[in-house]
Structures are given as C-alpha cells and as structure tokens.
Amino acid sequence: MTDLGVGRGGGSVRIPIRRLALRSLRSTERDIHLVLDPLRLALSVPQAAAILARERPAAIFTTGGYVAIPVLMAAAALRIPVVLWEGNVVPGRSVGATARLARVLAVSFAATCAALRSRAPCYVTGTPIRETRDVDRLAARARFGVPAGARVLLIFGGSQAVRRFNAAVVAALPELVERVHVIHVTGDAGYAAALAAREALRPEVRDRYRPSPFLREEMLTALAAADLVVGRAGSSTLAEVTALGLPIVVVPYPHAAGHQRANARTLVEAGAARLVDDDAFDAAALLAAAALLDDPATHARMAAAARALGRPGAADAVADLVLAAATRAPLPDPALIERVARAGVA
C-alpha cells in the first residue's frame, strides 16, 4: 500500500492506495504479458475481495475500465453497490463490460445510456467540474488585464498534441492580436516560442497576447474571461464551456478511438460548437475561428446553445446517486437529478 498526498487549503490529505496485481492494458505487443495479464486479472479478484471485505465500503464509485474489473467483480460478490460514471459519448469496451456490474449509471451525454447496454438505471448528470456558478466575469477579465468591451479568445490544446495549436497561434498571431485579446496555454515545450512571438509583435498590441505554459488554478478564471474558446473535446473541457455558456471551436484529438470527435459532434449538432479536423487546423483555421467574434448574432446563438447543454451541478447530481446507493435508499427520480445537474444555469 502507498499513500497519495493531495494538497487542500494549504495542507494535504493522505489517501491510501492499494495496488492490485493486474496492470494497465496500454500496450498491444505480442509478448509475455499476453500470458501474464489473464493471470494477473485472476489474482486481482480475490485480492480486491480481501480489501473490500476488510474495508466494507458502503458503495463504490468508478469510471470503469479494465483496472476496475476485479474490484467490481468482488463488489458484486459482496453485494456492495456500484455507481459508474462515463464521460464520453462512446464508451470504451472495458467500460461497457464493467457497466453491467453497476447498480446505477451516470453519464455526460444521453446517447451513452444506450451505448452502455446495461439494465441499470442511467442518469444524465453531466461531467463533474470545478464550481462555475459563482464565477465573477468582470473580476476574471480584470485579472487578465482585459479592457472593457474587448473580445477574448482562449486557446488551449490539452496535454496531448498541443504542438499543432502552438504552431497555428504563432503563425496567426500578428493578425490575430489586431482583432482580439488572446490567452494561450502553450505547455512547457511551446512557451519559449510563444514568448518570442510576443516580443516580435508591435509594442502597441503586445499586451493583447498572454501565453502561459499552464494555468492550473487560473484555468477557470481564463474561461470566465473568454468570449470564445478554441480547444480539444475532452469531457471536462466541454462541460466547463457549456456550464459557462461559451461557444467553442473544437479540434478533437484524433486518436483514442475517436472519443473526442463523438463528444464534439453533440455540441456541433446542438449549435454550440464548430468542428475543425486536427489535420486541418492551422493559422487560417484559427483566424476563421476568431471571426466568430465579428458576428454577434451567431456568437449569441452559439452561447445560448452552449448554455442549454450546461450542467454546472453535475458533481452534486453524481453525489446524490452515490449517497442513495450507499444508504440503500430508492434512487432519485430522473427529473430531480436533471434539476440538480442544471442548477445555476441562467
């Protein structure tokens, strides 16, 4: 067993971690692991059962996947209720398998309920995110030095394949900052080039470009300050932009079984997003994305569509399901969970 130290309010909380014998299935090579992995899985089931029998949790919350299989198999034998949450429109195969071991399902997209093919009750809660309902937009814009009336474009590519985003920003930057203020999350590798591009700008517009390697705790502030987002289609990103009623030009990460593209299509079909393929995203595509800010009517329609999808109370909704499972209480009415998830939507 190892401990994970998690910072909280300046201090830390020690969370015990117990490792099972199985490993993550991230490699597909034909090697010794093809023989060992089934053995590790078989060993992990009694190992998980021993841990659960000792700890006796009232309920288990899981995001599914291969590593959850022995825990959920053990939970079924011990009659411990399981709540599974899935954030993608199209779940992975291992998530689909573990969904059959859950008492209740929580998902971010309605289409996921059918895709999971489980008899368990399925609730559309949205994706649990940081608290957005008390965000002060004016304070956020002041924090980033944005003048009244200025338009703000937030660009971030997540942790994967961010180089394409960075190259597009550097190439488009001289024209881009003549039109909008830009907040750009570069990652460590792209930060030096972004600073050099900033120094090459005319002094009069240099302050309109704010590159940062990472924003971490300030990411929500940046979202609150923005008028338009250009980013990937991870579940949390889409949940935060819709909770804040922000239009997004989404560039799905092209790998990971196409999960992000399916996520993005939901927003596109609702009118809250425009989609640009990863291999088509360049300086011209970025400038075309920024042009949305020159069309107030279209921007307003997209913002309203995003807001209609928002579920800022998703964390509360999921917590209500976990508590009901833990206390063996009747599951809440779906309409109630919908109201909890949508709480705070303007």
Key phrases:
15% strand; 12 strands; alpha/beta; 43% helix; six-stranded parallel beta sheet; Rossmann fold; single chain; 346 residues; four-stranded parallel beta sheet
Describe the protein.
This protein is 43% helix and 15% strand. By secondary structure, it is of the alpha/beta class. The protein has 2 domains: 2-7 and 16-127 and 312-342, Glycogen Phosphorylase B (Rossmann fold), CATH 3.40.50.2000; 137-309, Glycogen Phosphorylase B (Rossmann fold). The strands form 3 sheets. It has a 6-stranded parallel β-sheet, sandwiched between helices. The chain is globular and about 65 Å long. The relative contact order is 0.11. The model has no long low-confidence stretch (mean pLDDT 91).
Q: How many runs of DSSP E, i.e. beta strands?
A: 12
Order of helices and strands: EEHEHEHEHEHEHEHEHEHEHEHHHH
Q: What is CATH's topology name of the largest domain? A: Rossmann fold
| Count of runs of 4 or more consecutive helical residues | 14
Main sheet record: 6 strands, parallel
**Widest sheet, order of strands:** 9-8-7-10-11-12
CATH superfamily heading of the largest domain: Glycogen Phosphorylase B
User: How does the overall form come out from the CA principal axes?
Assistant: globular
Which structural class do you get from the secondary structure elements? alpha/beta
How many independent structural domains? 2
Residue share in β-strands: 15-25%
Instruction: Give the CA-CA distance, first to last residue.
Output: 46 Å
Report the C-alpha radius of gyration, rounded.
22 Å
Q: In CATH, what is the class of the largest domain?
A: Alpha Beta
Percentage of residues in helical conformation? 40-55%
Compute the average pLDDT: 91
Question: What is the CATH architecture term of the largest domain?
Answer: 3-Layer(aba) Sandwich
Contiguous low-pLDDT stretches (5 residues minimum) are none
